[in-house]
Amino acid sequence: MHILIGIVGLxxxxxxxxxxxxxxxxxxxxxxxxxGMLVIQVLLGLLMLKTGVGKAxxxxxxxxFEHLLGYAGEGAHFVFGGLVDVKKDGSGPFMxxxxxxxxxxxxxxxxxQYIRVLPLVxxxxxxxxxxxxxxxxxxxxxxxxxxxxxxxxxxxxxxRILPELPSHRVYTLSASAMSTVSMSIVGSYMVMIEPRxxxxxxxxxxxxxxxxxxxxxxxxxxxxENRLVAVERKKQSFFEMLGEYILDGAKVALTVAAMLxxxxxxxxxINGIFAAVLGGTTFQDVLGHAFAPLAxxxxxxxHESVTAGEIMATxxxxxxxxxxxxxxxxxxxxxxxxxxxxTAIVQTFLVSFANFxxxxxxxxxAKSLAPEQxxxxxxxxxxxxxxxxxxxxxxxxxxxxxx
Length: 403
Fold this sequence. Notes:
mainly alpha, globular, 0% strand, 403 residues
């Protein structure tokens, strides 16, 4: 039964993506690519979650990050002493065990950038994607770049041409940035939710972003427009680069910490107000009921759809870290326990930057490089969030179909 519901849900989410543009002419041209990407998503989902090879690859990926988090813990233990537990048992202050490791991962990304490994991976993987997705080379390059170096930092690579790009291409670049996640925080996600769903979501969202953009923001490019511009690099010594990336990681960790303090406190306040006015019904209860039908369409059983919808909505109005807390002992209202399929669906949904705060982050990053483009992104911010959220729903539905 859940397969039938999932197929219906997939059709609904694709229709919701098509509704704003309703460009039938371009849909006919994009349809083969869209179908192809959906097939690729299903095949990759089966490979990652249902085969021994996929499990081995994800386990290796998870073990790599587990070791990296262990090394990060050594640095945190040196600075904070007994405040942080480096035994990988999940205990210790959230800031020190989950967020501080972002600094170490960011420094590794900087080193891989400096020795030209990441630029090569981003360039050639992006070129390969452009043939599969039917999107421009710049758009494909940007999608891979966003998934590795982050939603705002990737704009720096194209800052020379960013002011000249038309709004429809800027939308695609911004949608990729909001639909993916930065490798610098993947390790933090893996501490909070199951690593296999983190990896699955990263891969599925990459293709899901192109599917939604092909429907909500379709366009064609000339050969000249499709030319890939060389990535700009700032000339730095190794230690200048390392210091910059370490500080960037610290900024990310502190930003996430500040957002968590603010959003968790505000949600608690709003829950209290709602409970007082509505006789015990909290704000998150209301959100859960509003999102329950959408959660049901992804394959979540109806009896769990309100709880799943509540977590999904929490991610949308706050951020993914606040929502992921629901699956940890640190959850303000107690750890949430769902069935295996519902857990797979919801945790896959959570792995993206699709939330209201990301509109400001992306617009601000672009504005610092090209003021007019930053203003443009702010104007289509809600449409951007709408599309990126549909990407998460599509990826979650794919996982629900194969779970």
